[in-house]
Amino acid sequence: MSTTEPLKTLAEPWDGGETASSRALAPAAPTPIVPGGSIAGRSLTAVVAIMTFLAALTTGAVMMVVGAASDWQAEVGREVTIQVRPVPGRDIEADVRAVIALTRATRGIADVRPYSREESAKLVEPWLGSGLALNDLPIPRMIVVKLASGSTPDFAGLRGALAAQIPSASLDDHRGWMDRMRTMADSAVVGGIAILGLVLAVTVLSVTFATRGAMAANRPIIEVLHYVGATDRFVANQFLRHFLMLGLRGGAIGGGSAIVLFGLIQGASAWLAGTPGGDEASALFGSFSPGIAAYLGIFLQAVLMAVVTGWASRHTVNRTLESID
Amino acid sequence: MIRFENVGLRYGLGQEVLRDLSFRIDGHSFQFLTGPSGAGKTSLLRLLFLSLLPTRGLISMFDSDTATLSKDGRATLRRRIGIVFQDFRLLDHLTTFENVALPFRVVGKDEASYRAEVVELLQWVGLGDCMGAFPPVLSGGEKQRAAIARAVIARPELLLADEPTGNVDPNLGQRLLRLFIELNKSGTAVVIATHDIALMDEYDARRLVLHDGRLHVYD
What we know:
The complex is a heterodimer of chains A (about 325) and B (about 220).
Chain A: H1 41-77, E1 79-84, H2 92-104, E2 109-114, H3 117-128, E3 141-147, H4 155-165, E4 169-172, H5 175-217, H6 219-227, H7 232-272, H8 276-285, H9 292-323
Antiparallel strand pairs in A: 1-3, 1-4, 2-3
Helix pairs in contact in A: 1-5, 1-7, 1-9, 2-4, 5-9, 7-8, 7-9
Chain B: E1 2-10, E2 16-25, E3 30-34, H1 41-48, E4 56-61, E5 64-65, H2 71-78, E6 81-84, H3 96-105, H4 111-124, H5 140-152, E7 158-162, H6 170-185, E8 189-193, H7 197-201, E9 206-211, E10 214-218
Parallel strand pairs in B: 3-8, 3-9, 6-7, 7-8
Antiparallel strand pairs in B: 1-2, 1-4, 4-5, 9-10
């Protein structure tokens, strides 16, 4: 490229009068061209870590709700109930026996169990108190029908037969309840996705502001790099290296914290299993047992946050460099 | 090597700061660029260094029309030009060695491939003992020599210097001028922008004089 002769052939032009031998330190590993300290690294790492943690918690919560709803649906869906109301002029005990006989004759039914009068009294005990004279109250009788595994009994036929033969009996296949559960679970998923979207948006905005700040703070360095012939791609890579590392660090901290928290909750729920509190929590929220898939999901979220950080900073760096010439 | 034809430059909608500039800079040549403050010396240097594009006219550098170059193309062309600033523009967080080696780093060269060359040049400009020092602890003269070393390490065909002696005492200014003369003897074309008459009187060279945005050439 150059037409100049090698500099070593030149005469010595400098007498070396102004030197300081104490400063003749051999350069160690190459210093990053963009100093890490000029980027709001700790703050941004904290933001990415918190956002990754929140994303993981959201995912965990949604998975727990969906899992619990699925468990509830599976449990409720395996049985139906038949209610026999006391009607004047009809013998409720005879009606219960007739319902049991009719139900047992239906295909796909594994078990039929009527609630006794005492069990029925227990069902209303929280509202009416104990020691009731059940004969004085028109308390309906419940019959729990368990379905055989993998079968789909003819509920329409059973419902028709009940209406024809025992008008005081009605069948509840819990469809309305399950629909509400399904809606709630779907709402939780949609809410979770919305929160994840917000988390990603906050991350992108934070990274964008941090990148702009870093580029403004390092404007003199960018100018010098251009003066010595650096392309925009080279300049961009000097910044992207920092932000990608920062995103990976933040993602690792946030994701790691979430994994530790999930592990602790899982351990605690296993430890509390069998205790009244543990059983109540399990009944309310289902069993919290994130599997390999959940942990893999958290790991992927941490990687996603690092990728989002890298993408947002690349986008900002490129746009800023376009405006600099 | 470089040809300006009827070049004009204006910032925004203002008046032209440079008007109808037509001149050549040949390879291996040495010239001073001078003129009163505000005459447009720095603007002309920026045109020469491709950090500005003219609003009219033609600038041909190394047989390329600069108006048709992409941003990457301009970056590649800049590698054939070295520039020295009055305020040095050294990166304070890099050692003197790393500052001088910067032109090699930006083209992706491995340190092992240029280390000996940088050390040799630093010794040549009298900074052999300061390779590991950071710019804030260097004297003004040392900083300027480091800046010159950075500008010439990649063997540019053209060296531009914007008031290189503006921040140093006259004695040091003369020594820096001798350094530029040595570089010119080695084959590098040199343009020194200065309004230091005494410095120009030290060396008989072509003078490009800017006045009111117009250029007068005294060969």
